[in-house]
Amino acid sequence: MLGGESALFTDLYQLNMMSAYREHGLGETAVFELFVRTLPPGRDFLVAAGLEQALTFLETLRFSPEDLRFLRERGDFGADFLDYLAQFRFTGHVDAMPEGTVFYASEPVLRVTAPLPEAQFVETRLINLIHFQTVIASKAARMVLAAPGKALVDFGLRRAHGAEAGVLAARASYIAGFAGTATVAAGAAFGIPLYGTMAHSFVQAHAGEVAAFENFARSRPRNLVLLIDTYDTEEAARRVVALAPRLAEEGIPISGVRIDSGDLGSHARRVRAILDEGGLRTTRIVASGGLDEEELLRLSRQGAPIDAYGIGTSLTTAVDAPALDCAYKLQEYAGTPRRKRSEGKATWPGRKQVWRRRDAVGRSCGDVVALEWESHPGEALLHPVMRDGRRLSDPADLAELRARAAAELARLPEPLRRLEPFTYPVEITMPLRELAARLDRETVGPGRSNRPAS
Predict the structure, then answer these.
(1) Please, which residues have CB within 8 angstroms of residue 143's CB and are 6 or more apart in sequence?
(2) How far apart are CA 352 and CA 111, in angstroms?
(3) Three-class secondary structure of residue 356 per DSSP
(4) How far apart are CA 52 and CA 57, in angstroms?
(5) What is the pLDDT of residue 445?
(6) What are phi and psi of 33, to 5 degrees?
(7) Element at 240 (helix H, strand E)
């Protein structure tokens, strides 16, 4: 992983439970499923991401000598348990939705089948990896839908909640359809295309705006984009037009100009007119500065002549919905289905599969959450990806994941593509409901309701 991985990226209670499981002989096969209970406001669909990092974590999970030394010095665990951790490996199976798959509430996006201590221990990091990238990919997908045909670039590292978050946000947004990122580490780690222009400080450091543009152009002539809103946006556009012939004589075309403040639509229209009148019809306009999907929708509906957008804070923090009600719950142990019945947090028991139906034109029209043994029309979304602790195929190419996400977004019901409120139908099958009701009857106690979840 980025900067190295530690087995201590976990919650203490995972180690506490592992130790207790071993002391009491609870080591039979367990099945856990990772899912989202309910969708947050403003998210009528989600895009799965983070599976690659999750599989790498499982395949390489080890307790290092430094990890073991720390736990030994704490004194919470005995020598036998620490010896077990020294040899610990994940040996289980994983079934999952491929990255880029659209999914909805109550649908398992990943299933872990492993000896109980192993399946329990990996919970925290699996949620950490899949939850975050899914949050970002889902936000990015909305922006892609809001600005069709426009190039979107991740500018968000500086506002991300940590370096790993910034790099993984670049990856997740690229899967969802962004054109690239400004985060150099993401380019190095994943081969994501890198984009960068200049900051206002570069312009301010010069005695005049034209001198700043000329110096930057001669230093960075390739894909030259000039920032024009440090002082007066339209006047700077005129200066770009006047400068363009001199740079052209040196073989330096002006690829674009960037606007980072003010009414972006109004500025873009005036700048477009200035550039076109000055013969710079192929010079693109890039806009940035506090953008989210609502503003992108507004600009799209206005027909603003903006060719590309740089998206920062609202992407990497997913500011309107930064967390999902994500859970990783025990659904079967030692061959017996298990069901949590906590108020407002009841689970559907057993190993499950998700089936997706499509209409006559290929649009998704409804999902079915079923027990694993059931068969239903449509496409099964959970696939084997790891067996006996080893992945079944090489890491998926990002181009393949982007293509899947693009196809998934294209097949959304039209209201979702327009980012309009829409409740996508997700059916819970009768056998699954009957299993939940039977488990409730078998485990009901005094004063407890035996009503299954709705």
Answers:
(1) 152, 178, 292, 293, 296, 309, 311, 315
(2) 9
(3) strand
(4) 9
(5) 55
(6) -125, 140
(7) helix 233-249
Cα 158 from Cα 156, distance rounded (Å): 6
> For tokens 């067996």, what's the residue?
387
Rounded CA separation 293/329 (Å):
33
The Cα 272–Cα 255 span in angstroms is 13
Give yes or no for a contact between 151 and 308, defined as CB atoms under 8 angstroms apart.
Answer: yes
Residue ranges of the chain with pLDDT lower than 70? 1-4, 444-454
Give the β-pairing of 364-371 and 352-358: antiparallel
Structure tokens given for 31: 């099945």
Measured CA to CA, the distance from residue 136 to residue 168 in angstroms comes to 9
Beta-bridge partner residues of 110 = 34, 96
Selection from 140, 135, 138 nearest residue 150 by Cα = 140
pLDDT of residue 449: 47
User: Which pLDDT belongs to residue 5?
Assistant: 79
Which domains occur in the chain, in start order? Answer: 12-136+321-443 (3.20.140.10), 197-288 (3.20.20.70)
DSSP state of 128: H
The backbone torsions φ and ψ at residue 28, rounded to the nearest 5 degrees and listed phi first, read -75, 175
The radius of gyration of the chain's CA atoms, rounded to the nearest angstrom, is 26
Q: Phi and psi dihedrals of 217, rounded to 5?
A: -60, -40
| Residue 425 identity (one-letter amino acid) | P
d(CA 387, CA 394) in angstroms, rounded, equals 13
pTM for the whole thing?
Answer: 0.94
Strands (E), 240-381: 256-259, 284-288, 308-311, 326-333, 336-337, 352-358, 364-371, 379-380
Closest Cα to residue 102, out of 367, 396, 428, 370? 367
Best CA proximity match to 224, nearest among 243, 201, 205, 204: 243
- Structure tokens of 45? 């669909």
Residue 293 neighbours by CB under 8 Å, 6+ apart: 139, 142, 143, 145, 146, 314, 419
Q: Letter for the amino acid at 196?
A: G
Q: What is the pLDDT of residue 298?
A: 97
The DSSP line for 75-86 is T-S-HHHHHHHH
Among residues 284, 72, 30, 51, which one has the least CA distance to residue 179?
284
How is 7-74 classified by DSSP, letter by letter? TTSS-HHHHHHHHHHHHTT--SEEEEEEEESSPPTT-S-EE---HHHHHHHHHH----HHHHHHHHHH
Distance of CA 87 to the CA centre of its chain: 32
